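Hey team,

Filing this mostly as a record. A colleague (T.K.) asked me to run one chain through the structure pipeline before their review meeting, and I want the input and output archived in the tracker in case anyone asks later how it was produced. No errors, nothing strange. Just documentation.

Input sequence:
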Amino acid sequence: MKKLTTTEGHTHSVSQKWATVVALLLFIMLRERAAAW
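Output structure:
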């Protein structure tokens, strides 16, 4: 039971990290596109 909770927390942390990475990539892409205009 405890392992399940730990795994859940780990998965949540990973998904949160990926969400941050995706947001950064989108921000950079939009900024580059705006600069290219």
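Quick notes for T.K.: The radius of gyration is 16 Å. The chain is about 95% helix and 0% strand.
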